[in-house]
Request: fold
Amino acid sequence: ITVSEFTKRKIIEKYGIEDSKIIIAPPGIPDFYLPPGTNELGNYFLVTGVNNPRKNALWILNNSTVIKQKGFKIVALKSNSKSFNDTELPKDESIIYKHNVAFKEYCFLLKNAKALIYPSFYEGFGIPILESLSMGTPVIASDIPAFKDVFGNMIKYFQLGDINSFTKIIDSLLEIEVVEGTINYMKNKYNFENSARLILNKINTIV
Reply:
């Protein structure tokens, strides 16, 4: 059981398991609670997982000038995980770091962001993208296979590591929006009930 077509292909490639023996049960997302309050951070993009090198957030932070020139800030979420706490992060007045935010604050930050920027080198699915789209917040992501498999044309892609490609996406800010149909599609397809049903159905065929 795996979470996406991309990870299924990798399992087949690495371990030679038959296609028919692998089922895809994508992740679900919880109901989001939007706490009351006013956005006092101004116009910003949200970046998550800044400690984790695989998330490639450092590349965005090191190129924050592109975003700052457009009048936006970056809100960067990090944890105090011992695995990645030696990552040296740039300091700039346009970057606001937040540590170990609670779920309610995460929801608030995600909902009020101009867009989520998700520049990962490698992912199997991309749950923050799913969360973002479900709240109506646009997503700008690296053009890696997993994202394209799962999200198709619902998000904007830039070429991994290409600052010109990224700049073009930032320049087209007014064209970035999430339509109501996408929000409903995300909530209806990616929920825990559907995932559990897929897994249970598979179990029932082998016992």
